[in-house]
């Protein structure tokens, strides 16, 4: 099998070119994206990335480990499960993922109707997250997202904390101290953060809200995907 040549082997010393040598192959950055919010098993990664085969996933994970971006850990007994995680350096790639999201949201070819994994929806929200206005009351919302692409998947739970210092969304497991609890499919929630239309909070059967609905609207306003409006943009008129 032919060995893939690097940009460095062509005497290109640019750091951006070296970054592409590390994460520029197909699926590599997508795998990183799916690990940004925490470790996952091999099968979970494969289910969260439709289209990737086990051989390609295994090879890319090996390459990421070899580069020092990802690490493989075996949990102690009784689980004894192998998990894949990012190193501290690998987690710094969230800034790259966010920058790509902020850039690509202006594309007239952005596949607005395509679905996303729960983590990917939340990463998009984090990329576009904005702090509350000065003097606004802080809010905490529990968000449970079920992957619309795969049947019988358990919901993934996140905690959104909104304050004047910033809006933060993290993966979590159970919290009673929240203003609202939202349960939604990824497709329905993605539509909300893209469209700006808040009426599905009242009418969509795939979204349920317990608690303060206004807090949920504040979350949507603080994380809605935004881009400069320009000709041909899906966010234009």
Automatic annotation (TrEMBL):
Keywords: DNA-binding, Transcription, Transcription regulation. It comes from the Bacteria. Pfam families: HxlR. Residues 14-112 form the HTH hxlR-type domain. Coiled coil: none annotated. The keyword Disulfide bond does not apply. The keyword Transcription regulation applies. InterPro entries: ArsR-like_HTH (IPR011991), HTH_HxlR (IPR002577), WH-like_DNA-bd_sf (IPR036388), WH_DNA-bd_sf (IPR036390). This is Helix-turn-helix domain-containing protein.
């Amino acid at each position: 099998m032919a060995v893939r040549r690097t940009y460095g082997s062509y005497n290109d010393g640019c750091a951006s070119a070296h970054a592409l040598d590390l994460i520029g192959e197909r699926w590599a950055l997508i795998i990183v994206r799916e690990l940004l919010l925490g470790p996952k098993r091999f099968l979970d990664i494969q289910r969260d990335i439709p289209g990737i085969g086990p051989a390609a996933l295994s090879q890319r994970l090996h390459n990421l480990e070899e580069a020092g971006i990802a690490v493989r850990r075996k949990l102690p007994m009784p689980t004894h499960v192998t998990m894949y995680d990012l190193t501290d350096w690998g987690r710094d790639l969230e800034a790259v993922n966010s920058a790509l999201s902020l850039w690509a949201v202006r594309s007239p070819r952005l596949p607005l109707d395509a679905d996303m994994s729960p983590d990917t929806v939340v990463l998009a929200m984090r990329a576009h997250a904005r702090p509350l206005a000065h003097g606004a009351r802080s809010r905490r919302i529990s968000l449970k997202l079920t992957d619309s692409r795969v049947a019988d998947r358990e919901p993934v739970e996140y905690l959104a904390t909104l304050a004047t210092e910033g809006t933060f969304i993290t993966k979590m497991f159970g919290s009673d101290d929240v203003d609202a609890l939202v349960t939604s499919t990824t497709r329905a929630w993605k539509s909300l953060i893209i469209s700006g239309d808040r009426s599905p909070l009242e009418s969509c059967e795939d979204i349920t809200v317990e608690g303060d609905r206004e807090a949920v609207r504040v979350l949507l306003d603080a994380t809605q995907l935004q881009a400069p409006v320009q000709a041909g943009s899906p966010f234009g008129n």
